[in-house]
Amino acid sequence: MAKFRYAARGEKLGLVRGYLEAPGEFEAAEELNRRGLAAVSLRRCRGIFEPRGPAFVGDRVLAAVAGGFPILLGAGLTLPEATELMAGESVSGRLGGVLAGCAGDMAAGETLSGSLRRRCRAMPEVFIETLSAGEESGTVAEAFSALKEHHQRRYRTMRRVRAALWYPALIAVLAFAVVGIVLAVLGPTMEELYRGMGEELPWATLALMGVSRAIKGSLPEMAAGLILAILGFAAAERCGRSRRYLSALRLRLPAVGRIARYQAAAMTANTISVMMAAGAPLDRCLAVAGRAVGARCVGDELTESAGLLTAGGSLGEALGRSRYLPPALGELAALGEKTGTLSDTLRAAGDYYSSEAASSAQDALTMLEPVITVAMGLLVAFILVAIYVPMFYMYRGIGA
């Protein structure tokens, strides 16, 4: 079967773009006619131009995709037809190719969640499992609506957190760049200039020139050490035990740990809430939340606690056993179970912890700004002293 990219017009839909599979171009045009579409253009995908799954799918794209399905399904289209239309309207070209392939898989009897899992490894576990639960319970439109709200909330929260953290990151990069240029360029120049002065150099100048010589003499070794450190950290992130230890260490850091704990709590609450809206059982919701949460130590705890729900325990008890999640999350879950409003309670808890994560990032930045300002001022003062004081000695010697 060959894959074709098409543009076609329908009486009610207007111009539609997408992908389809057919033995040849003639069969592809016939397939479009069978769907009530008149082909405008039809091109065969070859080699590297054949649609592939994206390496990353962001929350904004996922919210847009999930938001289109309830509208199409509410208009009376079947799920394969809606998937085919969403393939043409997708904001991501590769994701559009994945959805087009999924439409063909559904025509052959496969589920949309199963096809997405096979064709797009970058698709989040929450998206796949929520859609699967909706397909099993017959609430696909409700599942897509819940996913839309979920990814919209995540996108807004992460945008606020990134907006709060970009300034210190930029300042740190600029500081390292300035120091690197000073040490690499000015250090050797200063040493040649002051070598024949015959005056005793101040300690700041000697320290600056010593660091410059050390960096210049061991630059290849430092670069190799940095590369090895990055590779070692990446390898540790892939190893289960070390990844769990590193995630637990991040959660215990003074400022970053608080933000990470709030993000883990928000992800846990939102995942369980969105999957409950699709009709998934609680033990499955908790297991998926364990795989979806970023911190490995929290994910392992949630996965282990899923067995407690299978044995008849409560969600509040399972969340309360976590050493890293806020205790209030377990109490809120227990309250929601007693009042019969667990999904709404967890959605509100997810919004609260998302807001707290963004606020904590902003508070950390507020405390960090004066520290950065003072550190940069001291660094600039040190460099100025190291450069200009020997010049005063030189001018004094010339005048004498």
Can you describe this structure?
A hairpin with a 3-residue loop joins strand 1 and strand 2. The chain has a three-stranded antiparallel sheet. The chain folds into two domains: 2-123, Receptor-associated Protein; 153-400, Up-down Bundle (Receptor-associated Protein), CATH 1.20.81. The relative contact order is 0.08. The protein has 16 helices and three strands. It has helices at 25-34, 59-74, 79-89, 93-107, 112-119, 125-137, 140-194, 203-217, 219-238, 240-252, 256-277, 282-292, 296-310, 315-320, 327-339, 342-399; strands at 2-10, 14-22, 37-44. The longest helix is centred in the C-terminal third of the chain and has 58 residues, at 342-399.
Give me a quick take on this structure:
This protein is mainly alpha-helical and 400 residues long. It has helices at residues 25-34, 59-74, 79-89, 93-107, 112-119, 125-137, 140-194, 203-217, 219-238, 240-252, 256-277, 282-292, 296-310, 315-320, 327-339, 342-399, and strands at 2-10, 14-22, 37-44.
